[in-house]
Amino acid sequence: MKSAANDQTGIAPATGDMSKEDFxxxxxxxxxxxxxxxxxxxxxxxxxxxxxxELKAQLPAKPPSKGEPMHDxxxxxxxxxxxxxxNWNHPSFFAYFAxxxxxxxxxxxxxxxxxxxxxxxxxxxxxxxxxxxxxxDWLRQMMGLDAGYTGIIYDxxxxxxxxxxxxxxxxxxxxxxxxxxxxxKDLPLLRVYASEQAHSSIDKGIITLGLGQRSLCKIPTDSxxxxxPRALAAAIAADKQNGFIPICVVATVGTTSTSSIDPVPAxxxxxxxxxxxxxxxxxxxxSAAVVPEYRQxxxxxxxxxxxVTNPHKWLFTPFDLSxxxxxxMDLLRRAFxxxxxxxxxxxxxxxxxxxxxxxxxxxxxxxxKLWLVIRYFGHEGLAARIREHCRLARLFASWVEESPExxxxxxxxxxxxxxxxxxxxxxxxxxxxxTRLDAxxxxxxxxxxxxxxxxxxxxxxxxxxxxxxxxxNIRTTERHVRRVWELLNEQLARLRP
Length: 497
Ligand SMILES: Cc1ncc(COP(=O)(O)O)c(C=O)c1O
What we know:
The protein is of the alpha/beta class and 497 residues long. The chain has helices spanning 20-39, 54-58, 70-81, 103-115, 126-143, 157-171, 176-179, 200-208, 229-241, 264-273, 311-314, 329-336, 367-402, 430-450, 478-495, and strands at residues 150-154, 190-195, 216-219, 245-252, 277-282, 306-309, 322-326, 406-408, 416-421, 457-461, 464-470. The protein has 15 helices and 11 strands. A 7-stranded mixed beta sheet has the order 1-7-6-5-4-2-3, sandwiched between helices. Strands 8-9-11-10 form a 4-stranded antiparallel beta sheet. Strand 10 and strand 11 (464-470) form a beta hairpin. The site of pyridoxal-5'-phosphate has 15 residues, from helix 6.
């Protein structure tokens, strides 16, 4: 069939999509380009070196009035966008929680874009709806979560946790869906509890739901950054005495700063005693539960109400894909289902429709990439990769421990190491010493990051600036971990007073 497009230039015709010949040609080119990008990624800096506004200044402020040749567009990706990328797929990306995509995950994204299904109702995408159920049940089994959990996909853990808290609030039977929270004299302060190490997404969820930041009670942690169950019990008792209504406890298994693990089994009886919803934020650590030796990560979840895990963090699934496992889908549905006439279908009583369980109507076909990732690597393949990341983290931690000039600042249960340089100074007061070490470690981090060869991030623990090395990228090997250790020591030698 003759192409309607100009094959020479790839310019799209006045109507209709790109010709199939051009689609094939540029599709092949693009896959080749992506393949080269991965192959040569270590030649790129991990952190984008551009200055704020530099990319925008190179892009036309006005849209093109006529279609442009595809090869010009692809050339601009190389010329303009690549320098503006921070390369999360670089094997020496150790910042935040290091995550990466994978080939099967990319194919899943490509196919999802091709199908472009909006899985709001079962009938608008039976494939997406039913594959989601199956893929999430596979993941549940791999993590060792019990069969009482049903999964639902959202974009991010922030959104998953917000939905969990909304379901908890619905379960409190305060008619908030119908009457809201403002202007009500009959509604005392509702309280949600999370440790002081919980992720800021819990604060944001509370704000978004209109509970107000005042509703969030931050519970102190122990010396290993884990929620203190006795402090939780005391806070709940005090709140009840004040006439507040506790509704939910958010435990974190794998906190963002240190990957510390709240003692879920000890929190369960407290939640049960007060009939509180227990939500477990395993956004990061949930993936590690697929490794049989790390199964204890889900201990206590058999008596929790909801669990969030992010395959887009450590399960080699391209961003975004977060899973909320919930034991009370009826409450989630009660909080969010609203079916106007134009969405009514004959089968609605007998099928699951994703839009009944959240604020979104249309939903992407995210399950496809997860299904491809699980099928391609298999349970054992996924576990082997995560196990290796944890081994590398322990190896790096052992170098830190063995060196008199460095120290660990938190336990290393998974793939994250919290540490800092602590070379001895001549003699200084405690305050000056603390300030000196903070400044030194910040300078070391910026020094390493400026080389473009690796990327680290930081946090504060006990008021000390703490460097974080997170290993979770599918391409990271021991060579990369050894190199970042060298870079850190080079910076220390350069900056040492
Ligand atoms: C423990 C924890 N919860 C929630 C989040 C938020 O994840 P998302 O970006 O998917 O909203 C993070 C992000 O790092 C996290 O570490």
